[in-house]
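To: structure subgroup
Subject: Chain for Friday's discussion

All,

I'm putting the inputs and outputs inline so they're searchable in the archive.
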Amino acid sequence: MNMSTHDATPDKDHTAPPPHPSLLQRKIIHFDMDCFYAAVEIRDNPQWRGKPLIVGGAPDSRGVVCTASYEARRFGIRSAMPCATAKRLCPEAIFIVPHFEKYHEASQHIRLIFAQFTDQIEPLSLDEAYLDVTQNTQGLYATKIARLLQRDIYRATGLTGSAGVAPNKLVAKIASDFRKPCGLTVVPPHDVTPFMRDLPLRKIAGVGPASEKKLHAMGYVRCQDLWHCERQDLQAQLGKRMGDWLHDRCRGIDTRPVQTQRQRKSIGKEDTFSKDVTDGDTLRDRLSHIATQVATRLTQKKMTGQTITLKVKYSTFQQITRSITLPRPIHDANTIHQTAIQLLERTAVTTQPVRLIGISISKLSSYMLPIDNEQSRSTQSDLFANTPSPKSRDAHTSRP
């Protein structure tokens, strides 16, 4: 396997001030597998190597792209794109359905290899994770560990991954994307400032399209555009929380530790219809099935939730959410379903065709003892008898 290693890309600025103290505390690797789902399929089906492969729904379905090979990405195909659009962009593309059991198996092998070097691992998904290797089991430099991870993972799975090595999670994640596929980008503490200088603000995880548009309107395009701003100036322009956050992030400052146990924030399920739906009964029936699936997952994980959110995507791809926080935690399908129906009445589903509908439940907590049926019925009765002042929240977004 031909592996290439790349150090920090921008020229060093020898007149730059010393690194921020937080940049001298940790050695973080962000490891990201290359086109993971597609790579697993190509490994198991070598005849697809070098061809545009799309993992997702059928091209004539309402499904979306899960991932695509690099050959397909050259046509502009990206994750979450409708498969019909992907087919128009690349008519010769090969479409296959996901095989998640294979991806889970490969992911387990990869995590076992991570654990050979450190127990400070924060999985982000099946195909990426943060590793804190400041104190590692083999006493190696972080860059050496990253190279060994690439080698060992390829030997064990036949799959390649890219790594970013940096003093924190923010810079490591940006760096891992620099030299894909099978790349290694190292950003030492003294190179963080030049590394961040010319990066578009959009590269900072957490700056989405809406934030980017707002920042552009204010004349902020690249990280260095914000360096002349005092913290209080950004707070005044963007709000205290956003101003504080962006003041640090644009300078490559991120003090978040690697979290070996990520707390689940929500549990949910959504379905995309094969055809746009305008019938209310069909929507309510689908919500019943979704509510049952969400309740089943809550029970499996021994959790309750208190905030229920309904998600609706119209045929125009405009997406809205409606939320309500109940007086007490619940975990049963009936309450979830009835609450979702209430939220459905606060949407435009009677006038706009619906493409997708979903339910999620948040404000989660664990329970140790089973909740008996009598208690569940009592809880449901109380919930709907005492709803004069629930906390509710509506959110509205649109996509092109």
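Points worth raising on Friday:
The chain has 13 helices and 15 strands.
Residues 1-14, 369-393, 396-400 have pLDDT under 50 and may be disordered.

D.
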